Amino acid sequence: MLEGIARDSMTKQETKSLRRDGYLIANIYGKGLENINAAFKMNEFIRALKAKETLAFDVSVSGTTFKVVVQEYQKCPITSDLLHVDLMVAQPGVKTTYKVPVKSVGTPIGLKNKGLFVFHKKRVPVKTTIENLPENFTLNVDALDTGHNILVRDLELPEGVECFLDPRVPIVGVIKAK
């Protein structure tokens, strides 16, 4: 379980001081809950994210344990270091918007025809409860040729999961190289 500290002060000086000490600034929120301003050791947070097996994982702040999902994160445009992360509390039975990662399997035919494989959407927003939340959407891209896409309408959504993107939005595809 990932251990964090609660931040008392929200000043710019305090935030800079925490970042200098190797902390990642976080905001934990949920429906009907009061926002919690926290900080986690950067290396421990990254290690916990890589080791997690589900989208939701446990964090502990000031002795209170929460099951959270990463909603948003901010990176430094120059160094690509994580600066801030928003964690949403995954409450059982509450329908919320989650961003589910997309994984591809196979090698598209279009790569042999001088095409480039492109991820248009790395994460697909869906509305569901935490119990019905899929871990990822795995797409077989073997049949994709140059100019072909897999669209939102081609996703197989589990029961109780709804995607509110336009069905014509591409997720992955093979484009023609110039």
UniProtKB/TrEMBL annotation:
Function noted in UniProt: This is one of the proteins that binds to the 5S RNA in the ribosome where it forms part of the central protuberance.
Large ribosomal subunit protein bL25 L25 domain location: 2-87
Keywords, alphabetical: Ribonucleoprotein, Ribosomal protein, RNA-binding, rRNA-binding
One Gene Ontology term of the molecular function aspect: 5S rRNA binding
Segments forming domain Large ribosomal subunit protein bL25 beta: 96-177
Name of the protein: Large ribosomal subunit protein bL25
UniProt xrefs under HAMAP family: Ribosomal_bL25_CTC
Residue ranges of the TM segments: none
Assigned protein family: Belongs to the bacterial ribosomal protein bL25 family. CTC subfamily.
CDD domains named in the record: Ribosomal_L25_TL5_CTC
Gene Ontology cellular-component annotations: cytosolic large ribosomal subunit
InterPro entries in UniProt: Rbsml_bL25/Gln-tRNA_synth_N, Ribosomal_bL25/Gln-tRNA_synth, Ribosomal_bL25_b-dom, Ribosomal_bL25_C, Ribosomal_bL25_long, Ribosomal_L25_dom, Ribosomal_uL5_bac-type
Lineage: Bacteria, Pseudomonadati, Campylobacterota, Epsilonproteobacteria, Campylobacterales
Species the sequence originates in: Malaciobacter molluscorum LMG 25693
